Amino acid sequence: MAMTSLQDKIDSVGNPVDMLRNAQAGPYQFPIQAEFTNWRDEQEAWRNSAVLFDQSFHMTDHHVEGPDVKRLMSKLAVNSMTNFRKDVAKQVVFCNDDGHVVADAIMFILEDDRINIVNKPTNRDWVQYHIETGGYDVTATTDDRALDNKGKRVNYRFEVQGPTSWEILEALNGGPIRGFKFFGMGTIMIAGTKVRALRHGMAGAPGLELFGPFKDYDRIRDEILRVGEPMGLKVAGSRTYSTVAHESGWFPSPLPAVYSGESTRKFRKWLGADSFMAGLSLGGSLVSDSIEDYYLTPYDLGYGHIIRFDHDFVGKSALEAMRDKPHRKKVTLLWNRDDILRVFASMFNDGDRFKFMDMPASHYATCPYDQVTKDGKMVGLSHYPVYTSNVGGWISLALLDENAAQPGTQVSLTWGEPDGGSLKPTVERHVQTEIACIVEPCPISVTARESYRT
To answer: 365, 283 in Cβ contact below 8 A?
Structure first.
C-alpha cells in the first residue's frame, strides 16, 4: 500500500525512533552563499560591529487572515493574546495535549485580523491542520521556504544586528529611529521605500528585522550594503548563520512532539508522508526506544515565563499540572579544549576515529540530541554543537537536571552515535568518545544575558 501520511510511514517502520534515526535528511539547510568574507570575521561582527543576516530563503511564512485569527492563536499558543494588536510580534509556542512542544515561531501581527507565522514548516503544518479541522473563519496562504518553493518567494527578510547596527539603520533611514519597543513593529525608510521592521536584538544590542515584497530584495539589500559596509557591516553566510542561535540561547530544533499518542493521531494521518516532519532526522548519542524521551516541554526550553493560563489552549491542563514540578534548565556547555583536539587528532588514525566535527557547526541531523552525564548518571541532553570565534571554543546548548545545571559544574558529553553510527548518509563509521564540559550560563554572552533579562 502506498504511504500517503506520516502515520503510514511510521506504521511501515514500526517505531518512530528507528524511522527518524535512519532518515536520510541532514541538518536544516540555509540556502545562501556559505561565506561572504570568512565565518570567523562574520561571527565576530555581531559582537563587535554589525552583521547582515539574509533570512529570505530558509524559513516558511504562513499568512493567516480573517475574523477568527485571534481566536485561532489563542487556542493553539501557550501565550496570552490579551494584547493582540497590529504592530506587535510574539514568540509563540505550540504544544500537544500532553504539554510537549510541537514548534515555536515568531508571529507578526500585521493587522488586527492578519498575521504571519515565520519559522520552520513545522509551524505551518500544525496551524494549518487546526485551521482545516477546527472550523475557524480564516484563510491561509503559504510562502514556502526556498527548498520547497515551486515559484518565487513572496517576501524578503533581512536582519541587521550588532553594537553599531542602530547607527547603520539610522543612516539608512536618513535620521533618528524612534518609537520601536522590543518586539514592536514600525517602519523606516530605505532607498526611498517605506520598509516594515521588527525590533529585537542579539548580543545585547538593538537591531531590526526588515521585511517587504521580494521584488524589492535587490534594491533594499544593495542599499544596506552601500551604507553599512563603510561602517563595518559584514554579510553573514550560511556557515555563520548556523551558529547564531547558540550564543543568543535559542534552542533551534526540538523534536516536534507529534510522533506518538492518540491526541495527535488525526494530525499524523492528515500530514503527508513527504512533509518536513515525516522526513527530518534524529541524531546524536542519546538513544532510546521511546520517542517520548525526546519530547520537551516549554519549561525545559526556558519558555515558562510566556505561558499564561488566562485562556483555554491545547496542552493547558498538562502544563498546569507540571508547573510546580522540577524541570530541566537551559544552559550553555563549554567543551574541553584537549578533548576537542583529541577528536580532531583521530582523523589521522590508521584505525578507529571519532565522529567528525565540522566547523563551525557540527550538525549532522535535523534534531541532534547528545547524552550528558554527571558521575556516570544521565542528567540531560546537549543540542547543536558549534565553534564560535567570540568564545574561542566549542559550545552547545543543553537542558540539564537542576542538580547539574549550576555554572561551573563539570559534566561529560558522549560524542558520536552507538554501534558505529546510523544509516544517515551524513554519518561516517566512527566510535564514541567522552568530552568533558563545563556548565556556563545561557545565553553565554554576558551583555545578551543582561539585556534579555531586562
So the answer is: yes
Assign 295 to helix, strand or coil. Answer: coil
Query: For residue 360, is the peptide bond before it cis, meaning its omega torsion is within 30 degrees of 0?
Result: yes
CA–CA distance, 279 with 27 (Å, rounded to integer)? 11
Q: What is the pLDDT of residues 348-378, one digit of tens each?
A: 999 999 999 999 999 999 999 999 999 999 9
What residues does 272 pair with on adjacent strands? 5
Over residues 130-165, the pLDDT tens digits come to 999 999 999 999 999 999 998 889 999 999 999 999
- In the chain, the percentage of residues whose pLDDT exceeds 90 is 93
What beta strand segments (E) does 66-133 contain? 88-95, 101-111, 114-119
Phi and psi at residue 255, in whole multiples of 5°? -65, 125
Q: Which residue type, as a one-letter code, is found at position 12?
A: S
The sign of the CA dihedral 315, 320, 325, 329 is positive
- Confidence (pTM): 0.96
Distance CA 384, CA 73 (A): 29
Give the H/E segment covering residue 122.
Answer: helix 121-134
Residues 338-349 have pLDDT tens digits of 999 999 999 999
What end-to-end distance do the CA atoms of the chain give, in Å? 56
Are 101 and 50 contacting, i.e. CB atoms less than 8 angstroms apart?
Answer: no
Q: Strands (DSSP E) along 311-376, which ranges?
A: 329-335, 367-368, 370-374
Locate 143 and state its grid cell.
Answer: 510562502
Q: Which residues pair with 368 in a beta bridge?
A: 283
Beta strands in 36-100 (DSSP E): 50-54, 60-65, 88-95
- According to DSSP, the residues that pair with 155 across neighbouring strands are 213
Q: Is the pLDDT of residue 173 over 50?
A: yes
